[in-house]
Amino acid sequence: MQFLTPKQVCAKIALSRATLDRMVADGRFPTPIRLTERRLAYEAHLVEAWMAQQVERENA
Known about the structure:
- This protein has 60 residues and is an alpha+beta fold.
- The protein has one domain: Multidrug-efflux Transporter Regulator, Chain: A, Domain 2.
- It is built from three helices and three strands.
- It has helices at residues 6-13, 17-25, 44-59, and strands spanning 3-4, 33-36, 39-43.
- It has a three-stranded antiparallel β-sheet.
- The model has no long low-confidence stretch (mean pLDDT 97).
- Pfam families: Phage_AlpA.
- This is Transcriptional regulator, AlpA family.
- InterPro entries: AlpA (IPR010260), DNA-bd_dom_put_sf (IPR009061).
C-alpha cells in the first residue's frame, strides 16, 4: 500500500488544498487516514480510482 500526502494529492489532481478539504468534507473525495497526530495521508489506490471515475464520468 502506498500513501500520498495532501500536497502530492493536490499536485496529482490539479486542485488546491482548500478544494481538496471541501471535497473530503462533502464526501466527494476519499477520506484521508491519520498516520500520526499531525500527519494525514491518502491511500494512493483510492486517489487513482477517484481519478478514473472522473475520466469515466467525462467520457460518458
